[in-house]
Specification:
Length: 153
């Protein structure tokens, strides 16, 4: 038990970063989401799938292709949309680990997929010198006779 605690202490802490994600799908235009960064963890969190203003009143089927937990390729349907019935659907944060292929299986589009690209960046532990510098910088007081000026807006 103590060994696992030691491992956790030696690891840097993870700092989550969130980036906006969006893509357009058309009948002949798949979207490939790949990440060439093996140092950090990445997730694609899909929020909405919506028909574009120019979409025909036909069935649009959107699917995602990715790897399952055993490393096998799997394809799932994310949404079935029709302009006159259901032009948009909320996926509520459907998370997929890259690489991911999003495609319009049926329909001509355009279909818009939006969400977030989540990245867990590993923070490097700070050295003792950096920590001492922070203490020195934050504890400095300004003299009483120095006035703060406002910046023009």
């Amino acid at each position: 038990m103590e060994d696992s605690n030691m491992d956790m202490e030696n690891m840097g802490s993870l700092r989550p970063q969130t980036f906006l994600f969006g893509c357009e799908l058309k009948a002949d235009k798949d979207y490939h989401f790949k990440v060439n960064d093996e140092e950090n963890e990445h997730q694609l969190s899909l929020r909405t799938v919506s028909l574009g203003a120019g979409a025909k009143d036909e069935l649009h089927v959107v699917e995602a292709e990715a790897l399952d937990y055993e490393g096998n390729q799997i394809t799932v349907t994310l949404a079935s949309l029709k302009m006159s019935v259901q032009p948009t659907v909320s996926l509520g944060g459907f998370e997929i680990t890259p690489p991911v292929i999003l495609r319009l299986k049926c329909g001509t589009g355009p279909v818009y997929v939006s969400g977030q690209h989540l990245v867990a960046l590993e923070e490097e532990p700070e050295s003792e010198d950096e920590e001492e510098e922070k203490v020195v910088n934050t504890s400095a007081k300004r003299p009483a006779n120095v006035a703060l000026s406002k910046l023009p807006q």
